[in-house]
Amino acid sequence: MTLVASYAKLLDNNLTAPQYFILQTLAKQDLQTSSYFAGVLDVTLSAITNLSSKLVQKGYIERVVSETDRRQVLLKITEQGREVEQNMLDRYRQLTAGLWDEFNETELDLMIGSYQKMIEHLEQMMNGTKLQLQGE
User: Could you tell me which residue ranges the HTH marR-type domain spans (predicted)?
Assistant: First the structure.
């Protein structure tokens, strides 16, 4: 089985990457606003409403009214959503088990440092692109 096919199995619950991001974030943070996800994913609120509606229909998340501001609706992961997220993490761990075993500590440190540098560079590029688009 190819690596690509194996990774495709991670998405066996018909979750898109943005839907999984929402689920994963809520598993860690419990409650979050749609505005937060719109900002992080750089999409419109209506896109987040569409993504979250699909997760609500599947029973993975629910919408709850904020206790401090009744006008604000928050997204919250359900127990079923936690199970799905945990199952996907378990599958990922199974798939990547042993992947790094033959790397020594120096090689791992170098790789992690290189990825961090690449991510910083990409973030700078993306911020520059956003500034250009806003200035046009």
Answer: 1-120
DSSP class of residue 10 equals G
Tokens linked to 122: 């990409």
User: Cα 37 to the chain's mean position, in Å?
Assistant: 10
The answer on 118 and 94 residing in a single domain is no
**Structure tokens given for 26:** 């809520």
Query: What CATH number is associated with residue 95?
Result: 1.10.10.10
pTM equals 0.69
Per-residue pLDDT of the chain (136 residues; tens, 9 = 90+): 445 444 545 555 578 888 888 999 999 998 999 999 998 888 999 999 999 999 999 999 999 998 888 888 899 999 999 998 898 888 888 877 888 889 999 999 999 999 899 988 888 887 765 545 444 4
Euclidean distance between the first and final Cα of the chain, in Å?
A: 47
- The pair of structure tokens assigned to 131 is 């500034």
DSSP bridge pairs for 65: 73
